[in-house]
Amino acid sequence: MSxxxxxxPLQRSPLHNVHLELGGRLVPFAGWEMPVQFxxxxxxxxxxxxxxxxxxxxxxxxxxxxxxxxxxxxxxxxTNDCSVLAPGQGQYSLLLNDDGGVIDDLIVYRTSPKEFFLxxxxxxxxEDWAQLxxxxxxxxxxxxxxxxxxxxxxxxxxxxSAAVCxxxxxxxxxxxxxxxxxxxxxxxxxMWLCGTGYxxxxxxxxxxxxxxxxxxxxxxxxxxxxxxxxxxxxGARDTLRLExxxxxxxxxxxxxxxxLQAGLGFFVKxxxxxxxxxxxxxxxxEAGLPDxxxxxxxxxxxxxxxxxxxxxxxxxxxxxxxxxxxxxxLGCGIAMAYLPPHLSAPGTxxxxxxxxxxxxxxxxxxxxxxxxxx
Length: 374
Description:
- The protein is α+β, with helices and mostly antiparallel strands.
- The protein has helices spanning 16-21, 41-50, 70-77, 125-136, 161-169, 213-226, 234-243, 278-287, and strands spanning 11-12, 25-29, 32-37, 53-56, 61-66, 90-96, 102-112, 115-120, 143-146, 151-157, 181-186, 189-194, 203-209, 230-232, 292-298, 310-313, 316-326, 333-339, 349-354, 357-364.
- Strands 11-12-13-10-4-14 form a six-stranded mixed β-sheet. A six-stranded antiparallel β-barrel has the order 15-18-17-16-19-20.
- A hairpin with a 2-residue loop joins strand 11 (181-186) and strand 12 (189-194).
- The mean pLDDT is 96.
């Protein structure tokens, strides 16, 4: 997890006072002041793997797209095919530039035949909004609304998530299946309950008006604690997502690299006749990939690999770490890096330079962690 240096004042979550009350350690992240941990990152990580954890995700952005041409508009703006979504369904997708580089990765939900709800990365809200506005310019059949400033979000993740959901909404309440969304009216707007997450565990993400966030968070936290769980910060969110091999925008995804290089081709529907970046991706596919996002595992005891640490083969620098950490579940260092295709096969031996010393590593398949090997 890294954060670009910015001189702008940090935004605060609607749950800021609760974080202080819980003793959270606050750090800058994507222009926000957010909790990196409340207890220890390892304890919070294990709570999510073994029971349940609750995260503040209010820094993430929410964009509403509606109108008679909302579907066709999003199909031209995004890589995945949203025409396959029935109301109540969602999918992972990407927003690209003309060169096929990744502006953002996001989740798009269809909430009605002519309405969509997008959840985007905090660090890319402004860029996403600018790109969507540019693409929608002059189209009176598409309406965009940026709800990011008035919406808060909470993620509940872990094997006991369904039990937390029952505490909140009653035993008869449906637990959202993966990639689904339920929409309900609230006291001051709408609430969205989504069957998604960033940890590899069962769970849900709950978005609500910012004015209602503190009350809901306290109810959720009480239910989480009743199930043996913990409040969790961005530190555990990062180690959990990295164990699954999930990319982080700004580290593993950027406007300089395409989703094909990032191994996200499944979410790119090149059979669609038109979307931003399609021609560039077709050309790259024909020419061959210059590098691929590759998973690395340290093979001996070492300090954790961190972003920008050099990767070497035979003493030659072949890349650098994009994301890296010590895996709490596996007890070893893990990382992701863009490497030439001939070095990306599982079993390939490498070295990672950590603080001036070289440590052995090998290429492995993603995910690093699964219930079977964890």
